[in-house]
Structures are given as structure tokens and as C-alpha cells.
Specification:
Chain A has about 425 residues and is an alpha+beta fold. Helix content of chain A is about 45%, strand content about 20%. In chain A, a hairpin with a 4-residue loop joins strand 9 and strand 10. Chain B is of the alpha+beta class. Chain B has 15 helices and 15 strands. Classes of the chains: A alpha+beta (about 425), B alpha+beta (about 425).
Chain lengths: ~425, ~425
């Protein structure tokens, strides 16, 4: 059930009696700009930490425990050139405690999201924690490699900031900017409210209308942009580590708004998404060159992404093998069994989303961003219909645009 | 077959022990589409040394994990492909206490993949060549974990605390021990630890639980197993003292990490008592070292802790520990801070009620995710205290018990471990 509350403000009620918790997510949408990403990373920490009414960490913990360990988080996601701020709460359904937990859940959202404690003190702490988060991520060599590959390849495009804001960008955010970004988000950004759980639709609608004063918004929802790179970029860096991280990114020019997208999903499943895929079989199972290797489709950018951890001595061999697997797909050199098995694995992965609260909300939100009414059965049908020829053909369009290798540091310490 | 109604969680499960000793637990979740099936053995990384029919048998560290990798080899077909052909995702993992093989599917047809799970785990088919080939994969896996600062910190903590206890080894062993593992050693461990009478099947499904149990019975009835061997865990006597009081490990990272870990000693506790002590210490620490303490904000403002700060309590097979960790440059300052604060702990009645509310909600939350539920429930069950008992234990804990546990908490043996830049 989708109810238009105001211009660009929608309430989505997804009734389901399978979950013991009720999940409510307020999703705000804007363009992906690095300064904005940095400011919202800090804002996400502020909004979940304290608010005017619950102005200490202690009082926030007391409130959450009163609501049987309620959870509250704010996360950021990129969707092509678009960028969403999700304010999510999960509270135990009141039927288990004989209390009106849903009303209290909405009241909690109102306090934290609409009456924040925006002070210099909360700002500085949130900024420090946002920087810590990025540093922590970069201390993991595989995350570092992925971030670097995305940053280098995406230079000049929103893709560069799609995973995280840089430490420099975070450092430059001012308190005034946070206030501005917050006001912009609350008043002007397209808002989608999702309520998932065993709830009464009318009650949800009435409660939301009563508790939240929401205005019309005119921020359009856009995700599509063209990411064009003429040349393939090769980049090596060195670090004191004991395993190299290799990342390859291919451009496909196929976005999730097209019918070909489902062919790309199937081709990628054969290429490297699963333990039955070619990359896993050739590089891990046949030659023991890695423990983990996978490929994934970035749906809003039209990219295919490969990532693995290897011994640096075998990096050339692994690159050749990745190319060999890619060539096998475009020359249809894989059995019908592998093809059908990978399709089944892909369909299973898609169906599994139905039993995960966050995935259900994300699936519906992507429909909203794409302005589509896709259901899981529609997607399954489309995948079923993909032929070997179509999967092969769609991979012909792939162009290798980025090879990034983070190597163990030896005598060579200069980065190329 | 026994039906168990978990009133507290509003869930129903079915339990049966088959003629060959295999235990089966099926949770019925009619509103979900997903089924998760786990085939588990209580054979984990801590079992490098066991008493088998009265004799002490020692193996290379990492053997249980190596075996988990090799069971996916099947002379007839590729296990991954066979599961994929039925629309199932299969995987496995080894922890300190157990090895789990599991698949997840949204297909309504469960009998075939369930048979496949039972058949591949109950049929080890390996040769020397395949064992040697696997070593390269496992060494890459060990290196992947070794360069993750969080894993590295934990690994160094365990090796600093224990001189004999197998917790000092990584779950996967190390590169040397992996290289030394042989085909014969793997086969021996398999024969001893994969007998159905040691193992459990856990299924969480929307399908008919009675049909599931009947399918498993049919599968097992057609198989013959070697006679059961009597196994007991053999955990060498561990001194109270730690191996190293202080250790710094150099890593090329920006955020140095530090852990202050106390080695605790509780002898002759029943499983129930052990769980009660573990929960009591958890509650005591949460009362003081979390946002429930009004001083927490001051600690952040004064840079005594940061957003990475946390506590961990773990009572396992033959060990117990209490750990505090943070991201700080000066490990000694952190140690002093924790030592000072430990002296200030007081027990609050209100907070006990509040924390019980929190844990109650957390337990409920686990049942919202089929995979998480299957793994967590089975782990607790295999360690001898079910979720239902755990709820009872938490209810049992009162202020007097917390005060007693706090008064008798012996924190005289500890290690201070840090990872970060060269000092």
C-alpha cells in the first residue's frame, strides 16, 4: 500500500506477519555530491546519538531498553547519481509485550529525526567518529583496494564518492554546513517512509499524519548518468601486507532500467557471482590461487566489478585467467549445466530477499527510484527467459576500464 | 518425536533422535519462504587434542577447518553445482567449538537437497593430490584474515593469554601446521568426529516438519556406519598466569588497536552455572562500561575511549576471559583507565531490569532471520544451554548474585595487547 502524503512524500506500508519486529525507515533522496556525502555521514552519527528530548547517551539507552532493545541507525546509499539517507528503527511488535510499541516507535523517530541536538559538541564528536570509520575501513587492505579502484576510476563522476566520503572531505565539513544540509534534507528532499511488519494500515496512516508535519518537496528522483572512460587505467600501490588485493572494473553501458540488465545479471552469475561460477572454479578450485574471488554487477552504474586476494607473484596469471573466463562467456564456452545452475542460484538469491526486512524495504525503494512496479516474480520470469546466446552477447559489450593491484611491499616501495 | 512449544518466543520446534544417534531439530516457520538446513558436528578448532577410546590423540592445529574444506569434494559431482541445480546456496564454516555445513533455499522441494547435504558430509572422498592442492587455498584464507586488524588483535590476544589451551591457535591453524596436515590425519579425524551419534541436523522451514524428519530417517536408515568411538575433549591444564603480560604487534595501519584481557578461572561449574556467571559478568560490565553510565560521555570527551570501545565476555571449553578493547595510541593509558574504572563499579537494581528488557528483545530479534536463528539456536544448544534455558538463566540473575560475582571476580591475570605502527 502506497499513500501519497504530500508532493514527493510517500508512505509505503508493507504488511507482513512473519517478523516479530516492526521496521520503519525514513528515506531521503538527493544528488550524490562529495560534500553532501561527507556532511550526511556526520549527520547520520549526530541523529542517532542524541536529540533535544533525550540529550544524553544514557537517556537514549534508557529509551531503547524501555522499548525492549529498540534499534536505531542511519545509513547512506548511492544509487547512480542519486544518494539516499536512511533513518531506520526496529522495535519489537507490541503484541509480544501488550504495549503500543508502534506509537512509541514513531514518537522516537519524531524526536530524533525532527528535533535533533545540533550543537558544536555533538558535531565535533560525530565528525571524529565519521573519520575514525573511514580510517578503520582503509586499514583493511581489501576495503582499501576497493575504495581506491572506485575513486580512481570514478574520478570526475559521482561514482568516485559512491562508497564513502574522503577523510579530507569530512575534515572540511563545518557546523554551519551540517545545519544547512539537515534543513535541506528535512524540508526539501524527496521522502519515502517505509513501515514493514504486522501493523494495521489505517493506524499507521493516522499516526504518521498526526505525528509528522510534512511539507511538499520538489526534489526530483534521478539516478541515471553516463560514466564514460576512454582508456583502461592500470594502477599498482604497495603496502606492508601479506596478500595482494586485485580489483578489476568493467564498463557495460547496461543500466538496471533496461531489459538487457537481466541478461547482464545472468552473464555475471556465470562469470563470478557464485561458487559455481567460472572465476571460482578456474582460479580457486582448479589452480588454488586464491581463497575468495567474486564478481558483482553495480546496477546503477552499469559496471561489473571483480575482487580477489592473491599472492602478488600470481597477479599476472590471475589477470589472464579472469580474461580467459570473460572470453569463455562471450564464446559460449561453458556447459548448459553451469548456465542453468548459475541462473538457479541467481533466482534463489533474489527470492531470499523476501525474508529479510531490510532487503524488502530496499527492493521497494529501488522500485520507487526507478519508477517501476517490478515484483520478484517478474524478475524471476525475466531471468528464466535469458538464453545462453543473450548472456554471451551482453558480455561482448564489456570493456575493462580499471585494474587496481595493492601489492605486498618489498624492495620496490614507490607507487606507480 | 517431541514437539516443543517455546512459549516465550511463540515458536514451535520438533525434536527426534534417530536409531543411529543422529539428533534432528526442526523449527516450523510457516510465514517464511526460506528454508535453512544445517548439518553440524561438535568438532571445532579447539579439538586438536582429544581422548579417543581412552587414548590421547593429537593433531595439527587447523585440522577441523581443513576437513571442512575437503568435505566439499565428491567423486561423483561438484557439491556446489549439485546444490545450485536445486536452487540452493551451500556453505560451511568452522568455529572453535563446531563445524557447520548448511544450505539455504526458497525452493519448496527440500528432500533432495537435504539428502545431498547428509550424503556429502557423510562421505569423505579425498586423495593426496587434492589435499596438497587445498593447502594453497587455505594459506590464502589465513593471509586474508591475518591482515585484517580486528582478527589480528584477537589472534594476538589469545596467543598472549594461553600457554597450553588450544585457543592459542588460529581456527585455521598457521601456514606451517596447514602444510603438515596429511591425508591420513584428515581421514582419522573424520572417522572419529563425523559419526551420526555426535552430530545434529537443524532445519528451519515453512515445510511440514514431520515430513522433514521422516525424510532424514529414510536417508539415515539406508546407511551403515563404523562403530562409535568414545570422544572426550582433552584440554591441557592451563596455568592461571598469562604467557605475555604485554605485547605490541606492528601493522601498517592508521588506527592502533588495544585490548586489555583478563584470564578468568572458574572451576567445576555446571553448564548452567557457567552460563549464569557469563551473563552476570556481561550485565555488570554493561552497567559500567557502556552508555548506561553517565560518565561514558566524559570518557569520550577526554579521549579515554572512542567509538570502537567495547567489552567482550567469553566462557568456553576450558577457558573464560573478559576483554576491553579500543582504538588508542597509548596502551598503558588504556590499561590504567580500565583498572581505575573497575574499582568504581556498583550494581544498580534499575539497570538490571533494564538490561533484562534489552536481552529479551535481542533474543526475539534472532527469530526474525531464518539463517541467524538456525545458527545461533544450534550453537547455544550444542554448547549445552538452549535459548529457552538462557532466558530462564537471565531471569534468575538478581542483585545479590551480581554483587557476589563482582566481589569474587579475580582480575589478577591479564595481558595488554596492541596492534599498530612500530613504536
Amino acid at each position: 500500500m502506497v499513500i501519497k502524503l504530500k508532493e514527493q512524500v510517500h508512505l509505503h506500508i508493507i504488511r507482513s506477519d512473519k517478523f516479530k519486529f516492526v521496521t520503519v525507515s525514513f528515506n531521503f533522496y538527493n544528488d550524490l555530491i562529495e560534500e553532501n556525502h561527507a556532511a550526511k555521514a556526520i549527520l547520520s552519527n549526530i541523529l542517532c546519538d542524541r536529540c533535544l528530548k533525550y540529550s544524553t547517551k544514557e537517556s537514549v539507552s534508557n529509551l531503547k531498553d524501555y522499548l525492549y532493545g529498540a534499534k536505531m541507525s542511519a545509513t547512506l546509499s548511492s544509487y547512480g547519481k542519486g544518494f539516499a539517507f536512511h533513518f531506520i528503527t526496529k522495535v519489537l511488535n507490541g503484541s509480544f509485550t501488550n504495549t503500543d510499541n508502534l506509537l512509541q516507535q514513531f514518537q522516537m523517530i519524531r524526536e530524533f529525526l525532527f528535533h535533533p541536538l545540533l550543537t558544536q559538541e555533538t558535531f565535533l564528536e560525530a565528525k571524529e567518529f565519521a573519520i575514525n570509520y573511514v580510517r578503520r575501513r582503509l586499514d583493511n587492505p581489501m576495503s582499501y583496494a576497493v575504495d581506491q579502484a572506485v575513486r580512481i576510476m570514478g574520478q570526475g563522476y559521482p561514482f568516485a564518492y559512491s562508497i564513502r566520503a574522503s577523510i579530507d572531505a569530512l575534515k572540511q565539513v563545518t557546523f554551519e554546513q551540517i545545519q544547512e544540509v539537515y534543513q535541506q534534507m528535512i524540508e526539501k528532499e524527496a521522502l519515502d517512509i517505509f513501515v514493514l511488519g504486522d501493523v494495521e494500515e489505517n493506524y499507521v496512516k493516522e499516526t504518521v499524519s498526526k505525528l509528522f508535519v510534512l511539507n511538499d518537496r520538489f526534489q526530483s528522483i534521478q539516478s541515471i548518468y553516463a560514466l564514460t572512460k576512454e582508456q583502461c587505467i592500470y594502477k599498482e600501490e604497495y603496502k606492508k601486507i601479506n596478500q595482494s588485493s586485485l580489483v578489476c572494473i568493467y564498463d557495460t553501458n547496461i543500466l538496471n532500467t533496461t531489459e538487457e540488465y537481466y541478461q547482464l545479471l545472468v552473464a555475471n552469475a556465470v562469470f563470478g557471482q557464485f561458487a559455481t561460477s567460472l572465476l571460482f572454479d578456474e582460479i580457486r578450485e582448479q589452480r588454488s590461487l586464491c581463497y575468495s574471488i567474486y564478481s558483482q554487477v553495480l546496477p546503477f552504474e552499469g559496471l561489473v566489478f571483480v575482487s580477489t586476494g592473491i599472492d602478488s607473484k600470481s597477479s599476472e596469471e590471475v589477470l589472464e585467467l579472469i580474461d580467459m573466463c570473460y572470453q569463455r562467456i562471450i564464446h559460449k564456452e561453458f556447459s548448459d549445466t553451469i548456465f542453468e545452475n548459475c541462473k538457479r542460484s541467481l533466482m534463489n538469491t533474489i527470492c531470499l530477499q523476501q525474508d529479510d526486512a531490510y532487503s524488502v524495504i530496499e527492493f521497494n525503494y529501488i522500485n520507487r527510484i526507478l519508477n517501476k512496479e517490478r515484483g520478484i516474480p517478474d524478475i524471476i520470469e525475466k531471468i528464466k527467459r535469458v538464453t545462453k546466446e543473450q548472456a554471451s552477447k551482453v558480455f561482448e559489450a564489456l570493456k575493462l576500464k580499471m585494474v587496481y593491484l595493492l601489492k605486498e611491499e618489498d624492495n620496490e616501495t614507490s607507487n606507480t | 518425536m517431541k514437539q516443543v512449544i517455546h512459549e516465550c518466543f511463540q515458536e514451535v520446534s520438533y525434536h527426534e533422535t534417530l536409531d543411529n544417534g543422529l539428533r534432528v531439530i526442526v523449527f516450523h516457520k510457516p510465514n517464511f519462504q526460506t528454508s535453512t538446513c544445517i548439518f553440524a558436528t561438535p568438532y571445532g578448532a579447539l579439538d586438536v587434542c582429544q581422548m579417543v577410546n581412552g587414548n590421547v590423540v593429537k593433531h595439527n592445529p587447523g585440522i577441523a577447518h581443513f576437513l571442512e574444506h575437503k568435505l566439499f569434494e565428491n567423486e561423483e559431482n561438484n557439491v556446489f553445482n549439485a546444490f545450485a541445480s536445486m536452487g540452493c546456496e551451500v556453505n560451511a564454516f568452522t568455529s572453535y567449538n563446531e563445524t557447520f555445513y548448511h544450505f539455504t533455499t526458497t525452493s519448496k522441494e527440500l528432500e533432495k537437497p537435504l539428502y545431498l547435504l547428509l550424503d556429502f558430509v557423510q562421505n569423505l572422498v579425498i586423495d593426496e593430490e587434492s589435499v596438497e592442492k587445498e593447502k594453497g587455498i587455505i594459506i590464502q584464507e589465513l593471509r586474508m584474515y591475518d591482515q585484517n586488524p580486528d582478527f589480528k588483535l584477537i589472534k594476538e590476544v589469545f596467543s598472549s593469554l594461553f600457554s597450553h589451551h588450544p585457543l592459542k591457535y588460529d581456527i585455521g591453524g598457521d601456514e606451517e601446521s596447514v602444510k603438515q596436515i596429511t591425508l591420513q590425519e584428515l581421514e582419522e579425524c573424520y572417522k572419529v568426529n563425523y559419526h551420526p551419534s555426535n552430530m545434529i541436523v537443524m532445519v528451519v522451514t515453512p515445510n511440514d516438519p514431520l515430513e522433514i524428519i521422516s525424510s532424514i530417517k529414510k536417508n539415515q536408515a539406508s546407511k551403515v556406519f563404523l562403530s562409535k568411538k568414545h570422544i572426550e575433549p582433552y584440554i591441557p591444564l592451563e596455568p592461571k598466569e598469562v604467557v605475555l603480560k604485554k605485547k605490541h604487534v606492528v601493522m601498517d595501519i592508521q588506527s592502533s588497536k588495544v585490548a586489555l584481557v583478563f584470564k578468568l578461572h572458574y572451576k567445576n561449574l555446571s553448564l548452567h552455572e557457567k552460563a549464569k556467571y557469563e551473563w552476570a559478568i556481561r550485565i555488570i560490565m554493561e552497567m559500567h562500561f557502556s552508555t548506561l553510565n553517565e560518565e561514558y560521555q566524559t570518557w569520550i570527551d577526554e579521549k579515554r575511549i572512542n567509538d570502537f570501545f567495547g567489552t567482550e565476555i567469553d566462557f568456553g571449553k576450558g577457558y573464560a576471559l573478559l576483554m576491553f578493547f579500543a582504538e588508542l595510541e597509548n596502551a598503558e593509558d588504556f590499561k590504567q583507565f580500565i583498572m581505575d574504572e573497575l574499582k568504581k563499579i556498583t550494581i544498580h537494581d534499575r539497570l538490571l531490569t533494564q538490561l533484562k528488557n534489552r536481552y529479551f528483545g535481542r533474543f526475539y530479534g534472532i527469530f526474525d532471520d531464518v539463517e541467524v536463528m538456525a545458527v545461533s539456536y544450534l550453537r547455544a544448544y550444542m554448547q549445552g544451554v538452549s535459548y529457552d534455558e538462557m532466558i530462564d538463566i537471565i531471569h534468575e540473575i538478581d542483585i545479590d548474585f551480581l554483587k557476589y560475582v563482582l566481589e569474587t571476580l579475580d582480575l589478577s591475570h591479564y595481558s595488554l595487547v596492541s596492534v599498530g605502527k612500530d613504536k
